[in-house]
Amino acid sequence: MNTSPDAELTKLDGVFVFWKYDLYPYVLGGEATKLRKDGAVYVPSYQGWFTNPIRFTTLEHGKELLARIKKTEQDYNRARKALEREWIEIVREVSEGMLCASAGDR
């Protein structure tokens, strides 16, 4: 009987998984190479940790989905920065008006 930890693992080939993450973008993904009996997978790119996947897919499809997630994240960050710049401009305009009004009250 093989009692090594690897005896409980099934080798995976060409499998991409996604798992929940507690920080933005709230889902991460990577190629899984091993599957434990409890359903957790080993993802070498995830600091060598086992994780509990919410989705299994092919390597190719997973990479496509992850690329879409990353592109959407970049688009989101650009849009957020643009809105922040617009907000700052409006706040400055309001603040200048308040400063002028305050100066005129003296």
Strand content: 25-35%
- The separation of the N and C termini measures 91 Å
Gyration radius over CA: 24 Å
Shape: elongated
Number of H- or I-type helical stretches: 1
DSSP strand tally:
5
Q: Poorly predicted ranges (pLDDT <50, ≥5 residues)?
A: none
Encode the helix/strand succession as letters.
Answer: EEEEEH
**Looking across the biggest beta sheet, what order are the strands in?**
4-3-2-1-5
Helix content: 40-55%
Largest sheet: 5 strands, antiparallel
Mean pLDDT: 89
Overall SS class: alpha+beta
What does this entry look like structurally?
- The protein has 106 residues and is α+β, with helices and mostly antiparallel strands.
- The chain is built from 1 helix and 5 strands.
- A 5-stranded antiparallel sheet has the order 4-3-2-1-5, with helices on one face.
- The longest helix is centred in the C-terminal third of the chain and has 46 residues.
- The protein is elongated, with a radius of gyration of 24 Å.
- It starts with 8 loop residues before the first strand and ends with a helix.
- 11% of the residues are buried.
- The model has no long low-confidence stretch (mean pLDDT 89).
Give the topology.
Blueprint: E1 9-20, E2 27-36, E3 41-43, E4 49-51, E5 55-58, H1 59-104
Antiparallel strand pairs: 1-2, 1-5, 2-3, 3-4
Quick structural gist:
The protein has 106 residues and is an alpha+beta fold. It has one helix spanning 59-104, and strands spanning 9-20, 27-36, 41-43, 49-51, 55-58. It has a five-stranded antiparallel beta sheet, covered by helices on one side.
